[in-house]
Structures are given as structure tokens and as C-alpha cells.
Amino acid sequence: VQLQEWGPGLLKPSQTLSLTCAVYGGSITTSYYYWSWIRQPPGKGLEWMGVISYSGSTYYSPSLKSRTSIARDTSKNQFTLQLVSVTPEDTAVYYCAASKRLILGATTKNLYDYWGQGTQVTVSS
Q1: Residues contacting 32, CB < 8 A, separation 6+
Q2: Where are the alpha helices (DSSP H) in 1-125?
Q3: Which residues does residue 119 pair with via DSSP β-bridges, in sequence order?
Q4: Start-to-end C-alpha separation, the chain
Q5: What are phi and psi of 112, to 5 degrees?
Q6: 29: phi > 0 → left, psi -120 to 50 → alpha, else beta; which?
Q7: Cα 40 to the center of its chain, rounded Å
Q8: Which of 16, 37, 81, 98 is the most exposed place for a label (fewest CB within 10 A)?
Q9: What pLDDT score does 63 carry?
Q10: CA distances for 72 relative to 8, 45, 89, angstroms
Q11: Rounded distance, CA 27 to CA 57, Å?
Q12: Can you tell me whether residue 21 is helix, strand or coil?
């Protein structure tokens, strides 16, 4: 399985961040993986944002839940992240990742089986 994420590199405060993660080499529905979004702000550790399961169930970080939405497009074998009302504190490298187990809040890299390469998102006026 390979993951590739992309999205806008630069946003202004109050805008909505939309990221897409394409999955290659495995179906997002029948491979029975959990598909997560994780970010790493500059100089800080990994922050788990949320996950969508192979069946479409979603779980979010309590601290981001009010601003976050994760969805999937099964026809394209992709899943997406939307983060509304961004601020400079949302500046980070954003990763998509896949795991065979559902571990809410996991921020240890080896708990995930596959990672995307990461995409830099900067929020600045």
C-alpha cells in the first residue's frame, strides 16, 4: 500500500483546509485498514487528528472535532480531510497514514503500517 497526500500549501486565516490522500495498492474499503490524518507543527510532536475506517466510521480528536471532517471517495480510492477556520497554529506538515488496528489518538509512528510523504501547510496572512 502506498499513500500520497496533497493540498494547498498556503492558506490565510479563517479559510478551510482541504487535503486529499490517494491510496494505491489496496482498497480503502476491502483492505480493512483504518485511514488516519496526523500532523506535526514545527518544532512539536505528532498530533493525531482523526480516522475513517474501512466501513466509513469516523473518529476525531476531541480538541479538533468541532473543526474537522474526514470523508472518503470510494470511487477514487481516496480519503479527505477538511479543517475549517484555520489559524497560524494549524501550520504543520500533514500526513495520512494507514493502520490495521484502530488506536484512537495514536502518535507513535510504528503503530501505523503505512505513511504518506507529508505535505506542508502554512497558514499566514
Answers
A1: 54, 100
A2: none
A3: 94
A4: 37
A5: -105, 145
A6: alpha
A7: 11
A8: 16
A9: 96
A10: 19, 26, 26
A11: 16
A12: strand
Number of residues that this document lists for the chain: 125
- Exposure string of 7-16, with b = 16+ CB inside 10 Å and e = fewer, is beeebeeeee
Distance CA 77, CA 25 (A): 10
Helix, strand, coil in percent for the chain, rounding step 5:
5, 45, 50
Alpha-carbon distance 107 to 49, whole Å?
A: 10
d(CA 45, CA 11): 22
What's the angle, vertex CA 30, arms to CA 64 and CA 37, rounded to 5?
20
Residue with cell 483492505: 31
- The DSSP call for residue 20 is E
Please give the pLDDT value at position 50. 98
Contact 19, 3 (CB under 8 A): no
